[in-house]
Amino acid sequence: MIIPIKTTKEKFANDLLVVLNPVLKLKSREKQLLSVLMLLHHTNSNIEDGKLNKLLFSRQIRKRVRKSLSPSMSEASYNNHISQFKKKNIIKGGKISQSLMNMYKHDIKITYEFKLN
Questions:
Q1: DSSP per residue over 70-101, as a string?
Q2: pLDDT tens, position by position, for the chain (117 residues)?
Q3: From CA 38, how far away is CA 96, in angstroms rounded?
Q4: Is the separation of the CB atoms in 86 and 92 below 8 Å?
Q5: CA angle at residue 53 from 88 to 102, to 5 degrees?
Q6: Domain ranges for the chain
Q7: Full-model pTM
Q8: What pLDDT was estimated at residue 103?
Q9: Which is nearest to 16 in space by CA: 113, 105, 115, 114?
Q10: pLDDT in tens, 84-100
């Protein structure tokens, strides 16, 4: 069965995380935060990767990201979510997982395989 999902570049990260969430097991606020970080990363992909990752997690951008969320997020909450992303290997070595970010480059297909016991 194929279920097409129409989306935009702005909504892509959120739509992707909704589809992947049974595997990623993200809480609502984690999905919201990660989708903003992914969109920022994608829209600034013209910046060299090392500089982009430093910028993305800089104090100034972190503050802007926290305030852009609705409702805004405290610094402590933001830091807790970033820690959770690291534990889940969504953020590794100070950057968002390349496998997630590569999904922005072209149309993607995700296949689920169910095995009954």
A1: SS---HHHHHHHHHHHHHTTSEETTEE-HHHH
A2: 888 888 888 899 999 999 999 999 999 999 999 999 999 999 998 999 889 999 999 999 999 999 999 999 999 999 999 999 999 999 999 999 998 988 877 677 788 888 898
A3: 8
A4: yes
A5: 65
A6: 9-104
A7: 0.88
A8: 85
A9: 105
A10: 999 999 999 999 999 89
Structure token digits, residue 77: 């909450």
Take residue 40 and report the two structure tokens written for it.
């920022």
Tell which residue, 7, 13, 30, has the closest CA to residue 101.
13
Report the sign of the C-alpha dihedral through residues 104, 61, 15, 5, in that order. Answer: negative
Phi then psi dihedrals of residue 26, to 5 deg: -90, 145
Q: Which residues have a Cβ under 8 Å from the Cβ of 27 and sit 6 or more positions away? A: none
Q: Which of 111, 113, 88 has its CA nearest to residue 34?
A: 88
The whole-angstrom separation of Cα 2 and Cα 83 is: 35
Residues belonging to the chain: 117
Could you tell me the two tokens for 86? Answer: 């690291």
Euclidean distance between CA atoms 48 and 87, whole angstroms: 26
